[in-house]
Amino acid sequence: MKTKIILIGRSMAGKTTLCQYLTNEELRYKKTQTIQVINKTMVDTPGEYFEHRFWGALSVTAAEVDCIVLVQQSTESGTMFPPGYATTFGKPCVGVVTKCDLGSKEQIENAKKYLELAGAKKTFVTSSYTGEGFDAFLKYMEEMDSHA
């Protein structure tokens, strides 16, 4: 993957685990304390930056990426993403529903709707533990690479 992405979402949404899966690392819980660049293509962000409205730090960091990835876990009731949130960045935006192995069909559909309302043009439903949904996500990223 050459397309540089930033992952934005609340704490425990699965952003770091998503990065671990994509880089073939062992999946283990690790609290992200600061913005971290992984393999020069992924920017993992602390959930607190989003939750506590430190959106300036997210906006400045997002200026250096090609695509915004909004991350929401399937089991979250409600969402913290306001409608149209992605327009803040002026860049392509996709959504990733994580932990689909834990959510019901209804919860997953709700998470997809929240991400779409926030401005995600395409949404992927994934599980870092089963690998579900990553083929489609990686294929989409490869398509973005070819247009870069």
Whole-number total of structural domains: 1
Name of the level-1 CATH class = Alpha Beta
* Overall SS class: alpha/beta
Order of helices and strands: EHEEHHEEHEH
What's the CATH H-level superfamily name? P-loop containing nucleotide triphosphate hydrolases
Q: Mean of residue pLDDT? A: 90
For the secondary structure, the number of strands is 6
What is the CATH fold-level name?
Answer: Rossmann fold
Coarse shape: globular
What's the arrangement of strands in the largest beta sheet?
2-3-1-4-5-6
* End-to-end distance: 11 Å
What is the structure about, briefly put?
This protein is an alpha/beta fold. 33% of the residues lie in helices and 18% in strands. The chain is globular and about 35 Å long.
